[in-house]
Fold this protein.
Amino acid sequence: MNEKTSRPVQAECEIISNRKVGAYHHLTLAAPGIAEGAKPGNFIAISVGDSRTSMLLRRSFAIYQSTSRGPFGGTIEIIVAPHGDGSTWITERAVHDRLNVVGPLGNAFKLPKDPVRALLVGGGYGSAPLFPLADLLRQKNSRVEMAVGASTAERVFAPVEGKRSVHSLAIATEDGTLGSKGRVTDLFDNSLANIDIVYACGPMGMLKALSTIGDAAGVTVQCAVEESMACGIGLCMTCVLPVRDKDGTLKMLRSCVEGPIFDGAAVDWDGIGTIPPGTYGAPK
Amino acid sequence: MTQSSFDFRTTLGSAHLPNPILTASGCAANGKELSAFFPLEEIGAVVTKSVMNHPRSGRATPRMAETPSGMLNAIGLQGPGIDNFLREDLPWLVEHGARTIVSIAGESVEEFAALSRKVRNAPGVSALEVNISCPNVENRGLVFACDRSSAREVIEAVKRSVGNSLPIIAKLSPDVTDIVSIAEEVVSAGADGLAMINTLLGMVINTETMRPHLANKTGGLSGPAIRPVAVRAIYQVHQAMPKVPIVGMGGVLTGNDAFELVLAGASAISIGTATFHDPSAPVRIKDELEELLISRGFTRFSDAVGYAHRGQS
Ligand SMILES: Cc1cc2nc3c(=O)[nH]c(=O)nc-3n(C[C@H](O)[C@H](O)[C@H](O)COP(=O)(O)OP(=O)(O)OC[C@H]3O[C@@H](n4cnc5c(N)ncnc54)[C@H](O)[C@@H]3O)c2cc1C
Ligand SMILES: Cc1cc2nc3c(=O)[nH]c(=O)nc-3n(C[C@H](O)[C@H](O)[C@H](O)COP(=O)(O)O)c2cc1C
Ligand code: FES
């Protein structure tokens, strides 16, 4: 399977539904032209506010589900956590309102050719893009275990229908309001004895911890990172983080086009927020 | 009147462009990504990200903050360096039919001179934009564009390197007491045109962490928030030197915004931050501006340039 993304499209997308699920909003958008090319791991960028908005920058959201056919043509579903003014504005939109969407953006999770034993780890709304990935993996006869963690029950995103996509689902909350009390990394054997590949989406701290576990166990961890983005389409260079290329050179790569999926072992997690010494083009 | 009889052409020194809408340096990368949204040859020219002599990592993140009707950025000129740029990025633009204005940035007069010598010999360049809003490492890090003699030295060195082979456009910073005097200085040093305005220095403090939001602490403010500053700067400089072509920019989101800068005296308009909001902004604004000019009875774009100055002496 090709992890490259099809050309992004900009479109006015009608909201088909907007449902509250726990602390999040589950939005379904009619997105013909965007949905067809979408792959698990891709994201969309939505403009916020009316035509005279003072919020100029688009907000990015991982694609939860996409269908290329149906009564509305292609549809895209996203899970939105109201955070600041922009994401809150999105969650307050009504059915039939339109959102200006650019997508699909970024790279996608890489899929192995042969059946594997995969562990999917999601933090908060980060579990959303892992469900369609689980479906694809299962179509290839892979075994899929999922572990989902969040601070509290209403921030766990694990819908009933999603449970059918996986062979097992374990949940942890830090306050113990759902599943076991603790962190998502407490949910599985950290030696990754029966795992061939890990896919992860969630906060940077979780991704870093998983990459360390993967390194020790010799298992690849594909991480979907979340960096602050001004454009989402590769124009501005705001969304960079230090990543090692094939030759071992650290480069500041754009997470909106070269990512958001990176091999956890290649990311200099401790170097995020700095220009690590030796980075390509670093000040002498 | 029909659309086809409208003359949308503009000139920047010896560069002739089919229409006056350009990208803004640093807001369109080097064209490739934007070409997914519209054919680059539809706009007047692509202005590339300011490139330096050597590859640059840029600054640490966070590099941006959204602000009311604008944003702050502190990218730190991340880029491939001039040799990679000329080997990979420029040929790609030329192949795809994009007219290209190459923006260069340096930390010393010598770096600007070396960069312009390399660009002079590259095929397919319409003009050279000289981003002098960079710190001069040889003068206590004082920004070239904020000091008359440093600004003059850079433009003189660039002029010696390129001669008359390429129009030289000096990009000015609005963070100066008297932008007209800087403009006059660089024009007398050999600049064929001026680009204005670059970003204004600003700062955001995160009230949760109670620290500056950007890793670099300060950043450049762009977007509609700065448009009145751009209009004022363009108006003042056009009034002082009506014959010198100006590439106007600063918060243009619509054809009407572009029209405002044209009325002030801009012969071309660069679209920057608006492209982050709407990736097809450059072509949309081009179409909106053309329609607007026709509806106001203009038959030639050039007649509208500086129209707000009419009847003044
Ligand atoms: C690739 C990617 C996928 C994402 N997927 C989801 C998702 O599925 N569901 C979800 O709820 N959120 C997701 N986010 C985070 C979401 O984009 C931010 O929460 C949102 O942009 C915050 O905007 P705001 O107006 O509420 O906050 P403000 O703080 O007002 O935003 C100000 C600026 O900072 C940027 N910003 C602030 N926080 C973030 C952040 N965490 N990540 C990136 N940019 C940020 C905003 O885009 C905006 O430009 C994703 C981010 C990225 C980069
Ligand atoms: C993210 C970003 C990067 C920029 N990089 C450059 C640059 O490399 N060189 C330059 O001359 N100006 C640069 N600029 C300034 C713009 O070219 C332009 O002068 C300014 O943003 C005002 O126009 P706007 O409001 O339309 O964005 C940058 C602006 C932004 C927002
Ligand atoms: S967000 Fe602009 S380059 Fe990635």
